[in-house]
Structures are given as C-alpha cells and as structure tokens.
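Supplementary notes for students who missed Thursday's class. We covered one full example, reproduced here. Read the sequence, then the structure, then the short commentary at the end.
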Amino acid sequence: MGEVCPMSNNRLRWLKDLDIFLIVVVIAICAASLLAISSATRSFDGGSKMFVIKQGVWMIIGLIAMITLIRIDYRLLIRYVEFGYWAVIVLLCVVFLFPSVAIETGAYGWIPLPGGANLQPSEFFKVVFILMLAKYLANEQEDEQGNVPDPMRGYLLVTAASILGVGLIVIEPDLGQTMMLMAIVGTALFVHLPKKWFWAMFATVLVSVALFFSATMAYPDQFLGTLKVLENKGVLDSHQYNRFFTFIHPEEDLSDKGYQVYQAKVAIGSGMMFGKGLYQGSQTQGNWVPAQHTDFIFTAIGEELGFVGSVALIFLFFLLLYRIVMNGFASKDRTGMYICAMVAGMFTFQIFENIGMSLQLMPMTGVTLPFISYGGSSILVNFLLIGIVLNVGFRRRKLSFSNN
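Structure (token representation):
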C-alpha cells in the first residue's frame, strides 16, 4: 500500500480541528442580516441597495480577517497585545478631534474616513480588552528566564489599562459600549474568581438590578427625579436621561422621546406568529421605526417574519454561543478558555440587551445585535472575535507541517 502524504494528513487535521459548524452558523446569521437590512432600507434613496452592498463588503472583509487570525497562533496575539492596546487608545483619543461627529450623533464615537465611512474605535477596544484580561488573569506568559510573573502585578496592570480605556469610552459618552465592557469583566470574574467570591458579587449585582427595576416600577417619578438631578450636575447627558424616561414612560411623549420605543413595540407586535412577509411590513416599509437597520433591526425581523422567524434567529444565536463555549472547553490552556468565555459573555449581553430594548424590557443603550445590525466596525470586530475563538479551538493540539 502507498504511503499517505503528510500534507494530506495535515489538511484532514485542519478540517477536523477547525469548528466548521461555528463558521456555518455565523454565515447563516449574516445571511439573515442582509435580508433584514435589505427590507429595513428598501425605501431609502428610491430603493437603493447601498446599505446591503456595504454590509456585504464588510462581511467579506470580516471573513478574510477571521481566516487570517485563524492562521496566527493566539498565544502570539496575547504576547504582543499591548501594542494593539496602545494603538486603540490613540484612536480613542483621536475621536475627540471631530466635534462635528458629536454634534450630529451626540457622542465622540467615530472617526470619519474617506468615502463616507466611519471608524468606531470603541468597537476595536473590545478585542484588545478581552486579550488583555485573558493575558493577565490567566497569567500563563513566562518571561525570558521561564518564570511566571507575579499575579498581583498583572492585576494592577489590567486594572490601570481598564480604567484608561473604559474611562475614554465613558467620556465620549457611549453607554452601550461601556455596558458591554462590564459584561466582559463580569464574565472574566466568573471564570477567574473562587466560586464563593463570584456568587457573592453576583448576588450583590442581582440585588442592585432588582432594586433598580423595583424603583422604576414602584417609584418611577422619584427615580426620574434623581436622574434629573444627575443630569443637571453633568453626570448624565440629556440623551441618556431621555432613554431612561422613555423606558419608564414610553407613552407619555409619543411625538418625541417615546416615539422610537413605541413604534418598535407596534412593529414586533403586528408580526404575530408568522409575520407579514418579507418586504410587506407596514412599520418597516413605512420607515416608522428610527434606526431600524442598526440598533432596532430586530423589529424588522419581528414584524415581517413574526414569532417563528424571531425564534429561529434566537436559536441561531444559541448555537453561536454554544459553539463558542465548546471551543473554550476544548482549549489546552486557561488563556484560551478565558478568551472564549469573555466573547460568549459579551455576545450574550448584546443579544439580551438589544432584543430586550426592542421589546421595552430594557432601556435603550445603542447596543447592536451581533452580526445582524448594520455597521462596518461592529461586523469586522465580531468576525475578529470569532476568528480568535476558532483559533483557540483549532490549536487544542499541535499541528506539524514537517514532511518527515
């Protein structure tokens, strides 16, 4: 019998170790995104497909970036993550040089690029933030003498790095990105801390959230009064106060503050079980829901594909999270496990918050729906994160490229 070519064996191991199912799930979600954006923007510019084309281009760029990352050992990314961190910090400072963006959007969050595109540095900070946390919490990087660094030094470094990066994003201000970073930190603590410490912290947070919702329901006016004081003192911006106001009293100002939330509820509710059909939704085709192709893209799916279509999308998200977690379990080191856990935690929060605010279960925060909402920076970063997750799962055992 002839000998099996070593390179053929390596190709088979590539196919076996790479999580093809996760890639298929991501592509399926992206296909749903293109359909939803196509419907939500169908009446824009006389039926122009420009938003769909741009989203498709960013998806292709994201796929290329994802494949590139799979081929680079994630431990190499971890080793040099500080360079990426400081590059993103510089970009987070550059956003403050464009006050015109803040006037238009209410936040210093984007850097205008040629051709009408915009770069959102806070999106890319999530990537380096996850890698930084994984590096210093897992504490598996050895120095030149083969010694493992003092964990306390790592804690101090990651705390300082977190304060600087998160602080710049808070100043923009970007509440949605800040909350996602907190979700990443929460997931990292869940993995890292002794379970009794974590559950004590979790119970504290849970009680705080319960008190928040109790206060909004039992004493809504008093709660808003407290937020108004914070707004007057400059702690909260007016648009942030308005988001809490519409969350508590969405029907009181339907012509202004409560308009978006109310129209979102009408769109989803009118979809009923099977929806009105693609391109047939009156709310979607009539442009009744502001920002429907971005933050409120779920309303287009809910109206035109109904409860069944919405559940199908949520099931795809479940498969996405499941495969990310499984890649984390398969990791050969704690660093890889930390990375996958934080990516899964961040996506879980995004999905819950975005769908929740569309159903008026959560306050509006500007959080996008992963791989679904329109936005180049968001799509690219999501693909980068999936690329790193695939990288972790792919390197659960060593590959040899030797012909010997």
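Commentary. The radius of gyration is 22 Å. The mean pLDDT is 84. If anything here is unclear, bring it to office hours.
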